[in-house]
Amino acid sequence: MTNDSTNLITPSMREGELRILDTDLAKRLGFAAPRMIRKLIKRYLPELDKIGPRSTVERVINGGNATEYYLNRKQAIFITAKSETVEATDITIEIIHRFDSYERGQIPNATPKPKRPRKPPMLATFKTGYGIAKELGLDDNQAASHAGRYCLNKCGENPLPALGLDSRPTPTEANYYTVTELGKEIGLSGQAMNKLLIEQGYQVKVSGGSSSAAYEPTEKGKPHARLFDEVRKGGRGSQQALKWKHVIVSLLHPFTKTPA
């Protein structure tokens, strides 16, 4: 085996993986010209593609176009075996040794294989976000919503939608419903329910940011309504939704054309 001063097997990081240029491997195998190893590589492309993704570069060499191949560790070992070189076994061992050394960063100026970033544990992250929100004076529902967003930023995922907890009623006032849900009982659409709630002085329409509710309860409506923090579709961001106690159905029913 050749020593490090003359070793031409010099892997470099390419597309997130250590690879060796076909020209370098050709010299180490003793090929007279790079085209010889490229001819061998083209012959075994189907097998090489099964080993790993292909990495190539198109270059103009000696006035013509040429395709240079970058081989990962297993592909380089495969081509070495197919080259039928006398030193094939020694060169295979050398490839393994050099790739291992580069991955461990033991060779100067070598770029070690990047480590996959580790995500923090989701439960611990949620508890941290929840605790911060509570320290800021938010109620339980708001704290949970903000803890979900905290998880999204730290872990890349908001656990609340997966748990079916996009909206969370308070423990003491659990039965709140959307206008669409309540409207079905008296034959009204959600839009008609909103209009009727405004007409009877229970809510007002408001304009605000993208995370604000479209309606807010009046003083008359506050005993029967509550704003909930909800997670948007896809788990990104939150919005407020006004929901009502079931009693609002009986309060509005006299003002509809639906028979009692």
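Next protein, fold it too.
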Amino acid sequence: MTDNTPLQGATVIGKSGLIVGLTNEKGEITSPPVSQYPLTIQYIGFKPVTIDAHTDTIALTPAEYSLSEIVVNPCERPIKRMTFYAREYASGATGSDTLQLFTEYMFEAFLVDSNTKVKGYKKKDSNLRLKNLKRYARYMNASGLDSIAKPDENDEITLLSWKDILTVPNYKITVDSSLSTTSATSNEIDSVASPASGQYQLHKRNGVLSFISDPLTQYKDHKWSPFFLKLLGLTIDVEEMLTMICYRVNDADCYSIDDFMYETYSLHILARGKVFKRIFKTDQPIEMDAYIELYPVSTTYITVDEYAEMRRDKTPLSFEVPTAVHPLSPAIT
């Protein structure tokens, strides 16, 4: 990149399609086994890079993005219908078995301005609603099994998915003027309070404003063990979770869903529950990784009557992949 700033949270994917690690705050990662080369390094906002052998420094080139045009008529159409494309890489591994899950999603959400009351609008509709998906699973073990399948919702491998943590950033953020500059290629870094929870770092690079958050700073020993999952036999320790929300830089330094470009979630999990152990047929803890990307596809302002009709519509959305989505890792393809 142009300023040689380390990139925290870059995802490294091995030749088998497994996530083999995430870069730390210094942009570093423990060198993966030679058997995992070639490696694909990807980071939202930059073009992915594939390397065939170990190297000390890898430079990523900024990607170019464009936002779709939005026609606004809020007086007559107070509800904003947005569609989203998402994709998820997830895996679970023991000493002998590996499961991989790759899923593409189409979502829908209905939003209103936080200061606006709309009769008939239900706030829960601001959450992402699943409108379509494509899912593929890969099963590998030490005896040589390597197979691909299309699991349904009842298949236990879907427990590897973390799509339910995705949220729509439907709030406004005003950036302190001391952190802003007029240069689209400048870089500013600071820690500021998150509108949701915890702390996040603010980065301004290549005309993109990024908020990188580590929600686990709120938990003891930097580890989250959801109690409600323990009740279901799904005991897990979330040992790493990085979220990044990105906006197109504007002159006002005030950002909303209209400036939203994409968000990502990166997780590393140690699964110890009986359900996971049954799936993997092991008594050992299972190492799990997940990486999720969410992109806005379209925005339409609609009337209350149109909203009422659309929220009842069960027709699946057609898949639309935004131009901002970078190519898949060759191993995933």
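About the second fold: The mean pLDDT is 82.
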